[in-house]
Amino acid sequence: MAPAWTNDQLRRKWHVQRAFRYVFAATLTIDDPQVERVTGDAAEFVRELKRADGGDIWLCGGGNLAGQLVDEIDEMVIKSYPVVAGAGISAFAGVFNPTQFAVKSRKDFDSGTQVTWFERK
């Protein structure tokens, strides 16, 4: 049986569901007033968001976008699973730019899954 969600997890889920979302896509059609399609430079757009008032920015997506935004990432949450699944997608695609992060915290689950929080050094 999976453990029940904590109040903190439920609050985060509620905030994520209510958060305004930006989708970086060249051709996707979006019909949702809570979502804006962004077609320009992803890094510049995120820099503008960071300069504005507001909360945290969460990147959920593939390695291509993460690679474009690596210089803008202050913290990371990485989930790892005890499964070998094959080739997969790179976590950070594009030009290789070594960037150091330090482990902030880690949570282990009975399934072997780990969630690790990192912050930029």
UniProtKB/TrEMBL annotation:
It comes from the Bacteria. Gene3D superfamilies: Dihydrofolate Reductase, subunit A. InterPro entries: DHFR-like_dom_sf, RibDG_C. GO terms for molecular function: 5-amino-6-(5-phosphoribosylamino)uracil reductase activity. This is Bacterial bifunctional deaminase-reductase C-terminal domain-containing protein. Residues 39-113 form the Bacterial bifunctional deaminase-reductase C-terminal domain. GO terms for biological process: riboflavin biosynthetic process.
